[in-house]
Write a structure and sequence with these properties.
By secondary structure, the chain is α+β, with helices and mostly antiparallel strands. The protein has helices spanning about 1-30, 65-75; strands at about 40-50, 55-60, 85-90, 90-100, 100, 110-115, 135-140. It comes from Candidatus Adlerbacteria bacterium RIFCSPHIGHO2_02_FULL_52_17.
Length: about 140
């Protein structure tokens, strides 16, 4: 009789362990997946025109993004962009090339306007604002 009772206890314990294992496995499988990197929320969008590449392209950006960061983000999405930046002492980071056009070709350089006005700071310092119209053009320096 004691042997039979022992087997009942062993069976009950085994059943309890199996049920607990299934319950734990089900909860682990339902656990939310953790993001591997934090994504910044979208803060807004700008209309971007780049000579030879885009006309009135809608581009979204994150809060605190500079115009350079917007271009770099677009560069990762579009292989035709071929963004080239260079660091210049005293001037900072400048756009040296986009697409097939590079600074100095034919005495022309990349320049930009925001809402029709040329800002007096580089793209790496210009904080974009939602709704702005940004135009990059390749021309003789207008200064």
């Amino acid at each position: 009789m004691q042997t039979r009772q022992r087997w009942k206890i062993i069976g009950a314990v085994a059943l309890a362990v199996a049920v607990a294992g299934v319950f734990l496995y089900a909860n682990v499988a339902k656990a939310p997946r953790q993001a591997t990197e934090l994504e910044a929320p979208i803060a807004g969008g700008v209309t971007l025109s780049v000579e030879g590449l885009y006309a009135d392209k809608q581009v979204s950006f994150s809060s605190g993004d500079t115009l350079l960061q917007v271009l770099q983000g677009l560069n990762t999405q579009d292989p035709a962009m071929r963004l080239v930046v260079k660091e210049y002492a005293g001037l900072g980071t400048l756009i040296d090339g986009m697409g097939d056009l590079h600074n100095g070709d034919g005495g022309k350089y990349w320049q930009y306007k925001v809402n029709g006005v040329m800002p007096q700071i580089g793209a790496g310092a210009y904080l974009v604002k939602s709704g702005e119209d940004v135009e990059w053009f390749f021309g003789v320096s207008q200064e």
